[in-house]
Design brief:
The chain is mainly α and 263 residues long. The protein has a domain of 90 residues. Helices cover 62% and strands 7% of the residues. The chain has 13 helices and six strands. Strands 1-2 form a two-stranded antiparallel ribbon. Helix 1 crosses helix 2 and helix 12 runs antiparallel to helix 13. It is elongated. The two termini are 49 Å apart.
Length: 263
């Protein structure tokens, strides 16, 4: 009943004033240990509240960042901008951007704080339309690369490239350690091929990212509770075994290295 009632209230608030309802989601209260409404709903598993239009709109705003997601075929446009010459900000200038209204903090009588937009809902779209024409090209680049949807596209693109490189190295370009000064990737005295070196750099970057995820977790129990995290740890352990045995000049260890790495 609490879930349904909260969903009905936020729906009425969103229908009356969208921006105020969105700001209300980010309001924290001392009585609830400074948790926001979204955090409370998540902890209480209020599915109806989380499925409301207001929360979904908030997620859209967060997902697209400062990119105006109300434009037609915006997902396709962002994907094309991300796919064509990745990491080169060429086509991102053609996307429409908005500057989100700044929030101010107002103190009320009971001592709690509430965030309220400096612009009213009925003039919000007009203000955004006026502001977006004044956004500099540096801000556009910043907005583009900070948008979660762009980071997701880049992660997907580079992960597909990584899988292709991994398959090529394991199936075609994985040779024993070059201790007889043979050619590797067209160079002499190169212990392992260049493609394998690039592959190891990519894998170690993933390991560093996983370490950062462990350090940024609320606690070790929270991290371990996820099965996907445990699979990541298992994959890292297997890779480290394969990486170490890779540099031991024995036929048995080379076979172990290839099998473990392939697994």
């Amino acid at each position: 009943q609490f879930d349904t009632g909260a969903a009905s209230i936020i729906k009425l608030c969103f229908d009356d004033d969208e921006q105020f309802a969105l700001d209300l989601l980010q309001r924290s209260d001392i009585a609830f240990k400074n948790l926001t409404l979204l955090e409370l709903a998540k902890d209480a598993e209020c599915k109806s509240f989380l499925a409301s239009k207001c929360v979904q709109r908030h997620l859209d705003d967060t997902w697209y960042g400062y990119i105006n997601h109300k434009r037609e075929a915006i997902n396709f446009k962002i994907f094309i901008c991300s796919l064509f010459l990745p990491l080169l900000p060429i086509f991102c200038f053609f996307l429409d951007y908005i500057e989100k209204p700044k929030n101010i903090t107002l103190n009320i009588q009971n001592g709690s704080k509430i965030n309220q937009s400096t612009t009213m809902h009925n003039s919000l779209e007009f203000v955004q339309h006026e502001r977006k024409t004044n956004i500099s090209w540096l801000d556009k680049i910043n907005y583009f690369y900070k948008a979660p949807i762009v980071r997701f596209y880049y992660y997907t693109i580079f992960f597909i490239i990584f899988l292709g490189l991994f398959s090529f190295v394991i199936l075609v370009d994985y040779f024993p350690l070059n201790i007889y000064n043979e050619n590797r990737s067209g160079y002499k005295n190169l212990l392992i091929p260049i493609t394998e070196i690039i592959l190891h750099v990519c894998v170690w970057s993933l390991i560093v990212e996983e370490i950062y995820q462990i350090l940024s977790a609320q606690s070790s129990k929270v991290y371990i509770s996820s099965k996907w995290n445990m699979l990541d740890i298992l994959a890292i352990i297997l890779y480290l075994i394969g990486f170490i045995t890779r540099f031991i000049v024995l036929e048995t260890t080379f076979i172990i290295s290839k099998k473990v790495t392939f697994f």
